[in-house]
Amino acid sequence: PGRRLIQMRSLAREFKAHSIDYQEQRWDLGLLPQPLYRYEKPAGEVVDGALFAFVTSAGTDPEVILALEARRLGDALAWHYRAIRFSDSNLYVQHDGKEVWTSVRDERNQLYFNPDHTYRLIRDRAIEELPELVGPAP
Questions:
Q1: pLDDT of residue 115
Q2: Which string of DSSP letters, residue by residue, matches 59-89?
Q3: pLDDT of residue 134 exceeding 80
Q4: Which of 29, 75, 90, 138 could form a disulfide with 20 if both were Cys (CB 3.0 to 4.6 A apart)?
């Protein structure tokens, strides 16, 4: 478990993220060094996992949640990831310099808010299966 946590932190640092808010301002998002939540040995094929947060320089409010999981595939383990929207901005995530996930407001994913911006609502989306990262898990 200790080595997997070190590996998860290293894998998380391979990701970069940014957002573009409703005023078209770009915010580079920073990765918090500690996972928000760690789950070891849950039921099923997942052996280990953690949730990491990308935040703006304006504070520590998560904008993107990055889920990393070590999953058993036969006799081997493989890393899987998923980016999760936690923001009302357009979001972009890159892995090793390649864009791997976006969540952009469009006609199906609208941002709704009241006139004084005391609440915001984003239409929900289905989350697909976690894609596999290249490389074995320990």
A1: 65
A2: -S-EEEEEEEEEEEETTEEEEEEEEEE-SSS
A3: no
A4: 90
Beta strand 62-73 with 76-85: parallel, antiparallel or unpaired? antiparallel
Which pair of tokens denotes residue 122? 């984003």
For 67-120, how does the pLDDT look when each residue is reduced to its tens digit (9 = 90+)? 999 998 888 889 999 999 888 789 999 999 999 999 887 665 556 666 666 655
Closest by CA to 27, choosing from 1, 2, 59, 49, is 59
- CA 103 from chain centre, in angstroms, equals 11
State the Cα–Cα distance between residues 91 and 63, nearest whole angstrom.
Answer: 8
Terminus-to-terminus CA distance in the chain, angstroms? 9
For the entire predicted model, the pTM comes to 0.77
88 closest CA partner among 68, 69, 49, 114: 114
State the average pLDDT over residues 28-33: 94
Identify whether the C-beta of residue 100 lies closer than 8 Å to the C-beta of residue 84: no
Distance between CA atoms of 44 and 41, rounded to whole angstroms? 9
Look up residue 116 and give its amino acid.
D
Kindly tell me the sign of the dihedral angle through the C-alpha atoms of 91, 119, 60, 2: negative
